[in-house]
């Protein structure tokens, strides 16, 4: 598998936490569900991109990360 | 806008709040003022009244804390999450928590967060509002530094809170005058809601319903102002914007506050000077200049700066001729010609509209130029004019641009 550079790993962790806090993302802890997790996370990224009017790609691009790092309210953006 | 699941709300008009502690970043009096002002924002557009308690259990308990602070949502240090609040309910319901690891300020600075703005947002949650995805709305999840001196609640937020609580009681009796200013945390003077409501009597308002956007193909649809903007055409009425783009077939529906959060609704006129990438908006005796989303500094300015006499209290419509670089201003049955190059009114004006524009024998509500032709709007009719020959080409319905 491609080695994920350190920074990207941190960004991925940050994004996961963000999507858990504000978009109801729940990660399957069981390692066997890794690909399912990635798809589920991609769906949640799409949901967040759509909410903020970003280009909906499902990918953790720079713009999406920048939006996640903006100071904000702690209440989720979608029902949970 | 959005609400929480099952739309929880306070089932009473009188809601209490208590400030449990203070941030050391600000004077206590400034914290109290910021909180009171934030409550006023919501009480001015609903029947709600907020009373401050100094002991015991209040509906909305306000506190500053950092990290873990007794609920399941610890704060995260400087930046990131600034605050959170709970929807209406007993116990922790309604409470608002502010992250003490942030730098709280009374004014809008780049070294801290404006407590009034964040509190107004969080109290929106305490009253039952969720987040809005309208850029510029107060309930938009991301903090946006802005001028709060004369802050007006954006229309999307008014729509949301009035969907839960309805408009202020007074507005149901359609007062003949604004009631006198009262003590903080009571209802505030009524200038805010009238500013935000569409200029004419909203066609759809009933006591329990907030005003709503008229239908695109309503045959009686009229406009306050119309302008082009970077190839698109924006139609304004009250706080609503219809956006027609050459790139999309659909008409986009927006609100003024979603483009320019600090501009009040109800423009009188608007026009674009394409060569300067500048649009000017007129309301009463003032005007603003914007470039895209940003309002140019130093505005609003008085319209007499353009050369109007003080007897002109407001203008009805304006349109810029991209070919001649002249801008026509319409007031009553007269019009002026303004030279954008010299930035001065032309001599020999005002002139009668009917003299120079055959077929236009009345007030002009709105006007814009498209493909070299002028379009004048009066009531629900639109007049297409060949400006070079000052000839009336045809008369259409005002909303002919909306694919009806």
Descriptors:
heterodimer; A: 80 residues; mainly alpha; 3 helices; 2% strand; globular; B: 404 residues; alpha+beta; five-stranded mixed sheet; five-stranded antiparallel sheet; 7 helices; 14% helix; elongated
What's the count of strands of chain A?
Answer: 1
SSE series of chain A? HHHE
Low-confidence stretches of chain A: none
Class by SSE composition of chain A: mainly alpha
End-to-end span of chain A in angstroms?
A: 34 Å
Q: What is this entry, summarized?
A:
Chain A is mainly α and 80 residues long.
Structural write-up:
The complex is a heterodimer of chains A (80) and B (404). Helices cover 54% and strands 2% of the residues of chain A. With 80 residues, chain A is mostly helical. Chain B is of the alpha+beta class and 404 residues long. Chain B has a five-stranded mixed β-sheet, covered by helices on one side. In chain B, a hairpin with a 2-residue loop joins strand 23 and strand 24. The two termini of chain B are 28 Å apart. Chains A and B meet through strand 1 of A and strand 4 and helix 2 of B.
Blueprint (SSEs and pairs):
The complex is a heterodimer of chains A (80) and B (404).
Chain A (H helix, E strand, L loop, with lengths): L5 H18 L10 H18 L10 H7 L3 E2 L7
Chain B lengths: L13 E6 L8 H16 L5 E4 L7 E6 L15 E5 L10 E4 L4 E2 L7 E2 H12 L28 H11 L3 H4 L18 H6 L28 E5 L2 E6 L2 E5 L7 E4 H4 L9 E5 L4 E6 L2 E6 L2 E2 L5 E2 L14 E5 L4 E6 L2 E6 L4 E2 L5 E2 H4 L9 E5 L2 E6 L2 E6 L4 E7 L7
Parallel strand pairs in B: 1-2, 1-3, 3-5, 6-7
Antiparallel strand pairs in B: 4-5, 8-9, 9-10, 10-11, 12-13, 13-14, 14-15, 14-16, 17-18, 18-19, 19-20, 19-21, 22-23, 23-24, 24-25
